[in-house]
Specification:
The chain has about 325 residues and is α+β, with helices and mostly antiparallel strands. It is built from 12 helices and 8 strands. β2 and β3 form a beta hairpin. Bound molecules: flavin-adenine dinucleotide. Flavin-adenine dinucleotide (FAD) binds next to β1, α6 and β3.
Length: about 325
Amino acid sequence: MGGVTCEETARRVAEELLAPQAARLEAEGAVPRSHLDALARAGLGRADGADALAVLEELAAGDLATAFVWVQRIGVVRWLEQAGPAWAGALEDLRAGRLHAGIALQAALRPGPAAVVARREGDDGAFVLDGTVPWVTGWGLLDAVLLTARDGEDVFFLLLDARPDQEGPTLRGEPLDLVGVPASRTVELHLSGHRVPADRLVATGRHAALLAGDAAGLRPNGSLALGLVLRCVRALEGSPAADALAAQLEAARDRLDAAGPAELPVARAAAVELAWRAAGTLATATGSGAVIAGGLAERTVREALFLLVFGSRPAIKEALVASLAR
Ligand SMILES: Cc1cc2nc3c(=O)[nH]c(=O)nc-3n(C[C@H](O)[C@H](O)[C@H](O)COP(=O)(O)OP(=O)(O)OC[C@H]3O[C@@H](n4cnc5c(N)ncnc54)[C@H](O)[C@@H]3O)c2cc1C
């Protein structure tokens, strides 16, 4: 990208493409595939580590629905990287933007009965899946979903072909009527005897071990909250409120970056609470017009509501409820 950083590129794409179209896409109900292709063409699929987080923050500042679909790839990349040479081609396709993929982790991370049960069948060892995944984002838009399914304590990570032509009696996405990020194409996914070839198995794990290691992966979603704050800072530019929020944004980002697994839930809660207050600040500063549908403040408040509950964990929820109720 020459002398231009991926963060600067993300800001340009967010300001020129994502933000101007966000309200219309909400009304239409779907992030288009062309948005993901544009992000990939800009090289943003190759950003990793701290760069990927900075990209995410800029995208969220422009349009949270698109950023939310985009963030799904971070988990997929992580699992494919660990999966070895057999998945190197898929990994490169993902980075180059030839493949767009999401992730559905409920069967791996929810305590109690599995959301999706897997059994192996036939000589080829194919997986047969039954169950319901309560939230799957990007449905109908993405090529593949890294879906977790369980057989007792064993968890299977399967790269499920999710192209629209795969839908049928065994695989059905039921759209959810969301008030926040309605364009994210989030569905409840129903699987009924759905066969997945054995060669789609990316990884296996044990349920208790995955739950125990979960907190280490909580950092990326925090950038969605930071991005919403960044949007408010820019919208309020020149006001004392913008300066105050900008200082808190730096502190929330530093805290997330410094946090280990033990501190991440509380750092996530703090970032979400800041996004919630920033959205309220923007609405208040906007005035009565903020309650008219289709405006920036109104959308930002609905997106902040989504952030209060999305990607939560018991420790995040506890910290957030305690802090909000103070
Ligand atoms: C719009 C939207 C889109 C989403 N899209 C996706 C997606 O594409 N992929 C995806 O994987 N998820 C997705 N989610 C799910 C999101 O990650 C969940 O919100 C999150 O898992 C918390 O779920 P919950 O608060 O609904 O609690 P639930 O998942 O309903 O959990 C029920 C209870 O189980 C316990 N519990 C849950 N998780 C844990 C844990 N890790 N450790 C210990 N106890 C636990 C808690 O006590 C919790 O109250 C989406 C959510 C929303 C709102």
